[in-house]
Specification:
Elements: E1 4-16, E2 25-32, E3 43-49, H1 50-53, E4 61-65, H2 67-71, E5 79-84, E6 99-101, E7 109-111, E8 127-130, H3 136-146, E9 152-157, H4 168-175, E10 181-185, E11 193-195, H5 198-206, E12 213-218, H6 235-245, E13 250-253, E14 256-257, E15 267-268, H7 270-278, E16 284-288, H8 299-307, H9 332-341, E17 344-348, H10 352-356, E18 363-364, E19 367-368, H11 373-392
Parallel strand pairs: 3-5, 8-12, 8-13, 9-10, 9-12, 10-11, 13-16, 16-17
Antiparallel strand pairs: 1-2, 1-4, 2-3, 4-5, 6-7, 14-15, 18-19
Length: 396
């Protein structure tokens, strides 16, 4: 059930948005209305999605969803405004809006979908599919270094945060001209344009909007569990299949880590390995230079480099290396290994120091470039290979 509480706005902060977006997020300090027996009501941070609930002012009475903060979730460090009882009850649908998002929930609202173009296939433009939102800045920056005149668009899929205005990374990339557009697809909403499906978003962006390439992936705050299929990264499987079906050269930006405390995420994360295993057709996978791919005569050694925490030329020596994961190529694992090896593995040289100096987001789950160089190197490799695919016209 929803966990909703009444609250009063104590203080408001500026709305975070860009000139390209219709609305953004407003940060608030609110005071929860406690039972009468309570001596003092707690004050907490909250966010308001301006496109849904409007702007708030000090003294407004709100209904806030407190569940994520009460549970202490890693990506839920604030309450979310459900409705502004003082001024947010009279919203009108924008002209031309005739499709619901978040339909059949109490937050359903109308949008104008972009799926109005005549279907033209193949699209013949490359698409990079992300595992995590934290890869977006590295991909966009590296793409711009090799293709400064090319237009790169972003399609936000499901799997993480649904509000398009929740991403500070997107705002920064748009302001710096590293993204040419932001379309929210499926249940995701609040981008510069709305799509009913990822297919519609890619078709419109790579067609009508003239993007030279696209990045497709979830918003921040990925949903996850320790299971093979129970995580938001599985959205990459659907997005990759859509890109392939549209005639796009499809690149998977693998989730990698050199220092994640969870063994299943070191080297190439089990999230990405599962997607590579289940894909119906081969895709391109980018690796930082120096990391071995699971192909060639020495298949076992190659797989060991993938399943274990293989480093790259930019990784500083660690004072104490974790033991490598043992790889047994027998039975089901042998079949899985061959499915993973069938993809087009490409290496790219990355420049971590230059990216660190760019001022773009450089932290994943509290770890920076020095602490987890492989995570950022993988994203930069993805952007470089995406630029190569765009320059080569692969997908034609």
């Amino acid at each position: 059930m929803l966990k909703l509480r009444r609250a009063t706005v104590v203080e408001t902060y500026s709305v975070e948005s860009t000139p390209h977006a219709a609305a953004g997020e407003q940060r608030l300090l609110v005071e929860l209305q406690e039972p009468a027996a309570s001596a003092k009501a707690p004050r907490r941070e909250a966010i308001a999605d301006v496109a849904l609930v409007g702007r708030a002012e000090a003294g407004d009475e709100l209904i806030v969803n407190t569940q994520a903060l009460d549970l202490g979730l890693g990506s839920g460090g604030f309450d979310v405004v459900h409705v502004n009882l003082t001024r947010g009850l009279d919203g009108d649908a924008p002209a031309g809006a005739n499709v619901m998002k978040l339909n059949y929930t109490s937050l359903q609202h109308t949008v104008e979908p972009i799926e109005r173009d005549e279907l033209k296939l193949p699209l013949e433009r490359p698409v990079a599919v992300l595992a995590l939102h934290g890869q977006l800045a590295g991909v966009a920056w590296a793409f711009a270094q090799l293709a400064p005149q090319a237009k790169l668009g972003y399609v936000q899929s499901e799997g993480g945060a649904l509000p398009g205005g929740h991403s500070r990374t997107v705002r920064t990339l748009r302001e710096r001209g590293l993204l040419a557009g932001h379309v929210t697809a499926g249940a995701a909403y609040g981008g510069e344009a709305e799509a009913i499906s990822v297919a519609g978003a890619l078709h419109h962006g790579l067609g009508a909007l003239g993007w030279d390439a696209a990045v497709c992936g979830p918003g921040p705050g990925i949903v996850g569990s320790s299971s093979s299929l129970g995580h938001g990264g599985m959205a990459a499987l659907d997005s990759a299949h859509v890109a392939l079906a549209l005639g796009c050269a499809t690149l998977l930006v693998a989730r990698m880590s050199s220092s994640d405390e969870r063994e299943r995420h070191r080297g190439i994360s089990h999230h990405s390995l599962t997607v590579l295993d289940l894909l119906l057709e081969p895709v391109t996978v980018a690796l930082p230079a120096g990391m071995r791919s699971p192909v060639g005569a020495d298949l076992r050694a190659g797989l060991g480099a993938v399943f274990a925490a293989a480093g790259n030329s930019t990784r500083p020596p660690a004072p104490r290396e974790r033991p490598a994961v043992a790889v047994q190529l027998d039975g089901p694992l042998a079949e899985r290994s061959s499915r993973i090896a069938r993809h087009d593995w490409r290496r790219a040289t990355v420049d971590l120091p230059a990216y660190a100096e760019s001022g773009l987001p450089a932290e994943t789950m509290g770890r920076g470039i020095v602490a987890d160089p492989l995570f950022f190197a993988a994203a930069l490799a993805g952007g470089s290979v995406l630029a190569e695919l765009a320059a080569a016209g692969e997908g034609e």
